[in-house]
Amino acid sequence: MTIQGKKIVLGITGGIAAYKTPELVRQLTAAGAEVSVVMSRSAHRFVTATSLQAVSGRAVRDDLWDSSAEAAMGHIELARSADCILIAPATAHSCAKLAQGEADDLLSTLCLAAPCPIAIAPAMNQQMWQHPAVQRNIEQLRSDGVLIWGPDSGDLACGDVGPGRMAEPTELVAEIEALFGPQRLKGARVLITAGPTREPLDPVRFISNQSSGKQGFALAEAALGAGAEVTLVSGPVEIATPRGATRIDVTTAREMHDSVMATVGDHDIFIGVAAVADFRPDAVRAEKIKKASGHHAMSLELVENPDIIAAVAARPDRPLAIGFAAETEHILEHAREKLARKGLDLIVVNDVSDRRIGFDSDDNEVTLVTVDVEHTVPLASKRVVSRAIIERIADLYEQTTSPRSRQGRSARKL
Ligand code: CTP
């Protein structure tokens, strides 16, 4: 078990999802972890220290000024000895405090003093989660390197439906196990395209699509977690760069193409997640296009953009090439056709006619298709799905780097 003997500080803050934390502690200790619980003041309103002490087998701490607890193990010592701090549930208030670097109680102080990874499992009302101030704090935390696990979408304790549920204990345990799991892409250099492209018509208009970039950025995070060096070539998106990734911003498909071609030679794996516009206006007008009086229709002449991933896969020094496909019908048939036409090693396909998943959703369900195998990753958050995809890519990568596979690319199998 990968978390055997790992010292985990579980910070519990004051949200209703705190009632799930004794179960979380039970699962972590069953997996061999040593869990020290630290509660915020308001966490006591939702779960008792007695329960948490019973399941963790350790004294629960909640006060920076408790001299007997400090004498047993000072807070700096507790921070230094932790292998990971997980705050679950993380309320909007605790996220704000962490994003600001406040240290006004034991848990927030530990977070500043600990050199180990910090993860949060946010849980709150969906309106609160979507509030710009909360999202700003989450993006700040993400770029500070804090791991954001969840929230899930669904029925909330307040009666609302939407994003805000704390990730289930089983999922949080799986995240912690992955954190301490083998770094299967250590030493690999991964280039990822993400987000949409914008194809300008005139100085104020462009053609684009709904891609949010969430799936590409989640894959970058999962690849970093697996030990890879990651370069992200991103179209215009509103998400923070995962800490450790090198980001190159582009706007049009041709800029994305040029940027990829200039850097792909230094990479072992290419993952094309971007929703690249297949066509662009044949010419960008220098002046704003005006309505011609008496004309109730207009037509645009479009020309084809370069196919970036096909160009990558056609290179003599090609890296492992993984594509994405969004389909609405004959899903697997189209995926297999694209795999062959673009010369890819793997294609990740999703059914965008399914309203639970797709462009702006936090969830996804995908099928991984290679020449000889199809493997479905069931509906889960884009983060969990990304980890499963990276695992499969690591399988392929290990085959390409093994001495036998150097004999030929056909040796690659999922
Ligand atoms: N892709 C690319 N460059 C393009 C178009 C697509 O690199 N100009 C990549 C995407 O990043 C993705 C895959 O190709 O990995 C998806 O291709 P898609 O756009 O679905 O394929 P098309 O060939 O455009 O097929 P269709 O539009 O008919 O579905």
Question: Can you describe this structure?
Answer:
Helix 1 (21-30) links the parallel strand 1 (7-12) and strand 2. The two termini are 25 Å apart. With 414 residues, the chain is α/β, with parallel strands linked by helices. It has 14 helices and 19 strands. Strands 12-11-8-13-16-17-18-19 form an eight-stranded mixed sheet, with helices on both faces. The protein is globular, with a radius of gyration of 24 Å. The chain has two domains: 7-180, Flavin prenyltransferase-like (Rossmann fold); 189-279 and 300-408, 3-Layer(aba) Sandwich (Rossmann fold), CATH 3.40.50.10300. The site of cytidine-5'-triphosphate has 14 residues, from helix 12 and strand 16.
Protein traits:
alpha/beta; eight-stranded mixed β-sheet; 14 helices; binds cytidine-5'-triphosphate; Rossmann fold
